[in-house]
């Protein structure tokens, strides 16, 4: 796929569905933020 047709955004919907926590406990961290931290650690 040519670079100009590639999207620069990731679909994080599966992460948001898994880490949805509104019922009990503290609110969960945003999955996008956690992914950025992980990627930054490997860079």
- Indicate the mean pLDDT: 75
How far apart lie the N and C ends?
A: 24 Å
Helix content: 40-55%
Q: Give Rg in angstroms.
A: 14 Å
Query: What's the number of extended β-strand segments?
Result: 0
Can you summarize this structure?
The protein has helices spanning 13-18, 31-42. It is mainly alpha-helical.
Tell me the layout of helices and strands.
Blueprint: H1 13-18, H2 31-42
Would you kindly provide a written description of the structure presented here, covering whatever features stand out?
- The protein has helices spanning 13-18, 31-42.
- By secondary structure, it is an all-alpha fold.
- It is flat, with a radius of gyration of 14 Å.
Fill in the keyword field for this structure.
43 residues; mainly alpha; 2 helices; 0% strand
């Amino acid at each position: 796929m040519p670079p100009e047709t590639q999207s620069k955004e990731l679909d994080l919907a599966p992460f948001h569905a898994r880490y949805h926590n509104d019922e009990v406990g503290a609110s969960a961290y945003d999955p996008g933020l956690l992914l950025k931290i992980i990627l930054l650690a490997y860079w």
